[in-house]
Amino acid sequence: MNKLFTLSLTSAQALAFAGCTGTSGDTQKSSAQASASSQANAPYAERYRPQFHFTPRENWMNDPNGLVYHNGEYHLFYQYNPHGNKWGHMSWGHAISKDLVHWEELDVALPEDQNYMIFSGSAVVDHYNTSGFGTKDNPPMVAIYTGHKQQPAKGQNQQLAYSLDDGRSWTKYQDNPVLDENMENFRDPKVFWHEPTERWIMVVALSTDYKIAFYSSPNLKDWTFLSHFESPASELGIWECPDLYALPVDGDENKTKWVLEIDLGAGEEGSVAGGSGGLYFVGEFDGKRFTADESTLPEHAEGPHQWVDYGKDFYAAVSWSDIPEEDGRRIWVGWMNNWQYAQELPTTPWRSSQSIPRSLELASYNGGLTMTQEPVKELQMLRKDQREVSNLTLTNETRSLEDWGVHGKALEMTVRFEPGTADTVGLNVRTGNSEKTVIRYNVNDQTLALDRTQSGEVDFHPEFPGVHVAPMPLEGGKVELHLFIDWSSVEVFGNDGAVVISDKIFPEPSSQGVEVFAEGGTATVEQLNAWPLKSIW
Ligand code: FRU
User: How many angstroms does the Cα of residue 13 sit away from the middle of ligand 1?
Assistant: First the structure.
């Protein structure tokens, strides 16, 4: 396949990366945005404002950055434009949480400067003070990020900043950059401490060379090249935002495999649902080199990799560093957007949200090993009164669940269908005013689909409306789903998180109905639990 196309980024990204950053405000407002702003009232209560997903109070956000836990706080940094609601002036915004659910937005942590924009990267707690930025008693938090230079010549290199006050203030390292290969596309360093070799490892993308590079360092300042990882999957789009971590297999801490996760910026083909999205490889990392283990590929894999999410709005996901050992989870969030239409989402005065935090495991699944994603259990603290539907038989019909009190704009649901003789079973959510978002399981194809073609406002970009389909083998004869529905998104988890579809939607605020359906025969909703969710704001 000709790789040239991969240089053609999405128009939005290309414009932005070319330095077309006249983005200090929205100059052109769509009619939708205008009507949105006229309805906007209190902060965090505006039309489409997510109620349990992190959003900045105002302005543009993209990738999660520098996820790190320190002294009882989860830090969420993110690509942020402090001056407008489109991409530009890239800086690190900052929010903290004590419970992964409620977030407090703090001041911008790392602003752009006259030389560099601050692109994506990671953060660690330097417990042994290897960098010398702190002391053993007060180990520094160190951010490792990409400096993006536009003048005099384009270039990207890796830089450091550190904090000695729990992330409240940051100092850029005076000898930046710490790693410069004189490349135009060299970005998104993810750094972690590799205990067996007692040194830092950096995983970083050579985006338009379709390679991931590994480096090591004793002190975060001096980096030595270790190896490259390449794969035919690179032909789908440019590579960004890698992550690398070991996960227990089937919950057995003594048996681990490594996961190398990479994000595909939109190329001609792009990710599974089109545009940008994530993929991953399961294999081994020996401290120097990552080797994909193709024997772990499940039957549904269509290439050397597996897809992270089958929806269109889960990008640049990275995992938290320094989660305490006694917790032991690997937790990540992704950016709920897609570079195809990222700058056109009809929201103001902010644009984009992060996903709900998800905890990751490797599970034996469909003849191989698959990375499962489960909503973190902390989210249960948002549940209001439980509504239940049991043993509801459906014969070729759609039933509203209004009589059971199941409806809402912010809702968690679990459902188990026994598909019986039906060809398809599923749910319509956020229904009303001839709008619906359809979640349909096809028993014959064994696929799960999310159809947002009638989900509300869809025509702000031609790539937005669509049906996103995931392979989902029927397990034990039942269809089990876990759903999180917010004011402008749906996240669906199937087969215990082996299948995920994450999509933005923009329904009327009045579209709050939930329906269940069976087509082509008789099926039973064995059990459906629903919880309206409290707002985190
Ligand atoms: C991914 C990305 C990164 C880059 C950042 C710039 O969405 O393109 O590769 O560091 O966004 O904002």
Answer: 9
- The per-residue pLDDT for 150 is 81
24 confidence band (pLDDT: 50, 70, 90): very low
Share of the chain above pLDDT 70, in %: 92
pLDDT digits (tens, 9 = 90+) for 376-388: 999 999 999 999 9
**Quick check: is 188 catalytic?**
no
Residue 416 — very low, low, confident or very high, per pLDDT cuts 50/70/90?
very high
Look at the alpha carbons of 77, 354, 406, 459 in this order and tell me if their dihedral is positive or negative.
positive
| pLDDT (tens digit per residue) in 306-359 | 999 999 999 999 999 999 999 999 999 999 999 999 999 999 999 999 999 999
List, in order of start, the domains of the chain with CATH numbers: 11-40+57-342+349-375 (2.115.10.20), 383-532 (2.60.120.560)
What span, in angstroms and rounded, lies between the C-alpha atoms of 263 and 305?
12
Candidate from 116, 188, 208, 340 with most ligand 1 atoms within 8 A of CB, to mutate: 188
What is the DSSP-derived secondary structure letter of residue 294? Answer: G
Q: Which amino acid is at 198?
A: E
DSSP secondary-structure letter at 1? Answer: -
Confidence band for 136, pLDDT divided at 50, 70 and 90: very high
Q: Tokens for 504?
A: 């933005």
Please name the residue that has the structure tokens 């968690």: 412
Instruction: Residue 142: name the closest of 169, 123, 120, 118 by CA.
Output: 123
For the CA of 119, the nearest atom of ligand 1: 10
Question: Ligand 1: which atom is nearest the Cα of residue 207?
Answer: 9
Task: Answer for the pair 345, 351: CB distance below 8 angstroms, yes or no.
Answer: yes
Q: Rounded distance, CA 216 to CA 226, Å?
A: 7
Query: Which residue among 23, 80, 86, 187 is best mutated to probe the pocket of ligand 1, counting the most ligand atoms within 8 A of its Cβ?
Result: 187
β-pair type (59-70, 350-351): parallel
Q: Could you tell me if residue 395 is left (phi over 0), alpha (psi between -120 and 50 degrees) or otherwise beta?
A: beta
Residue 252 contacts by C-beta under 8 Å, 6 or more apart in sequence? none
Strands (E), 164-238: 171-172, 179-183, 187-194, 199-206, 211-217, 224-229
pLDDT band at 10 (very low <50, low <70, confident <90, very high): very low
Does residue 34 register a pLDDT over 50? no
Direct distance between the N- and C-terminal alpha carbons of the chain, in angstroms, rounded to an integer: 48
Q: Which amino acid would we find at residue 429? A: V
* 30 touches 36 (CB < 8 A): no
Q: What mean pLDDT is predicted for residues 206-227?
A: 96
- Whole-angstrom Cα distance, residue 480 to residue 451? 18
Interval between CA 412 and ligand 1 midpoint (Å): 31
pLDDT score at 267: 65
Q: What is the mean pLDDT of the chain?
A: 92
